[in-house]
Amino acid sequence: MHYVYVLRSLKDGKLYTGYTTDLRDRVATHNSGNASSTRNRHPLRLMYYEAYLLAEDAKAREQFPESGSGKRFIRRQLAHYLSGSSP
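Request: output the structure for the sequence above.
Response:
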């Protein structure tokens, strides 16, 4: 499987979007500080993911949550979660 995921920094509340074939391992890598893109932002919480059979589909979809409309979509989808948790 190929995954597109969104993490939320519990430190600053910002979102990070990524792609992987091993979701559990990738989240652990982010939280251990071994991912340069989120090194200073952990701990991070996995808050959303989508699974795809083809890498091409997942990689194309990864760009959507990073766009303005994609961020609005994620925030609408997870409005209850985001309003009830601290950054």
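The longest strand covers residues 44-52.
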